[in-house]
Every structure is written in C-alpha cells, then in structure tokens.
Amino acid sequence: MLCVGLDPDPARFPASFEASTEAIYEFCTAIVDATAHTVCAFKPQFAYFAAQRAEPELERLCSYIRETYPGVLLILDAKRGDIGPTAQQYAREAFDRYGADVVTVNPYLGTDSIEPYLHYADHGVFVLCRTSNPGGGDFQSLDVKGEPLFANVARRVAMEWSEIGECGLVVGATFPDELGTVRSIVGDLPVLVPGIGAQGGDIEETVAAGATPDGFGMVINSSRAILYASSGDDFAEAACREAEATRDAIRRSAKR
After folding, report:
1. What's the pTM?
2. How confident is the model at residue 256 (pLDDT cuts 50, 70, 90)?
3. Which residues are catalytic?
C-alpha cells in the first residue's frame, strides 16, 4: 500500500546534480527506478514541477512511469478545484496531457466541479476530505448537520459521486481517529493517506484505523522521508532502503 510522493526540491538534491530542469527529471526517475518494486503508486506533486518551470519534465516523468511500470498507479497531486468548464480543462490537463490515472481534487465548489473528472473512463479522483495539515480542521471540523464537515464530504463521495465515477478520499495519517470515522462512512472506497514520514504519522495507527476488513484499501504516501533519505550520491540506494522499510512496516501492521 506504499505510495512514493515525488516532490522534487533542487535545493535538497545531491551536490553532483546541476541546477536545471533536466536534473529534476533525472532525480525523479532515479527515485522511481529505485523504489518501484516497493510501491502501489507514485504521486508527483504538481507545484514542485511548475514552480521550477519543469512541466515538460513532469510530462516526461509521467510517460516514463506509465511505460516502464504500467502496473503502478500514477496519481497527479494537483488538488484542483474550479467551476465546471474550467474543471473540464483541468481534467484534460491531468488525464490527457500528463496521463495520470487519478488526480487529487478539492470538493469545496461542489458536485459540478467534480463531475468532469468522473466522466473520464478508467480514471478517477481522490477527494480532499480530512487533510494532514494542522490547519485543516479550521473548516473541515466545523459542525454541519450534527457531524463534522469532513464526514459530510465523505458521505457525499460514498453515496453520490462514486455512483458517477471512480472516487477515493484523502485523509491524513496525522488524524487516525478521523481516518477511522471516514472508513466507517465510505465502506471499501480507497483512501489516499499522506502524513507518514516527515509529517509524523504513525503507520500502525494508520493501518488500524483506515484499512478495509481484508487489510488493504489505502494508498499510504511518504515523500520527503524517502526522497531525501540521503543527501549524497547514494540517494537512490538510501531511498530504496527507506521505501523497503516503510513497506515492510505497513505489511506488518496490516497482518495484525
């Protein structure tokens, strides 16, 4: 259930890398090759590429993942959210330009802002529900009709949007109680779980709260802890070791 997040920050690359967009591609493909045997998914974070004017490198990276590791889910972490016609363009960007299998989306604008993604056959969305950041509760925990807003989002996804197309939810590992609440609402829908690793989420608590009865049902993301396991030229080998250790910890927790 491990997902490796691809959040390339050139300031943290080994000194042997030149400052260029090509270095972003080379770094990420090295991470992908080193960790592909450990993962169910890769999750490029759009902002890390766009801020460096590296959208062409993101396209190449997505193509590389699809062609080299076709059994691995490709999640574009873009957190898109806009009105219907603009959402159609964002859906085209994610699925046609980058070839993502799934894109993260913001539900704040309602059903018509999500539908354009759901009408793409064999593609889907992970809907932001209870995010891993401390400030997420500013709105997500507000009482709405007797339950927190994030529970309302989970219910809408499970009962309405999943009838239109393929849906999952984003719930942070940093809030295992809320993760358990979401799982109780959505049944066996998949949940993307950020917050493991650098953000301090606990693997055992996450699996106990969020797994389906068969011990699966989650895509558990770790980004910085794996990407920057070493700042030296052994970065790929170190990423491999960290990814294997994280995968094995997830497996042990799922068997309990």
Report:
1. 0.95
2. low
3. 79
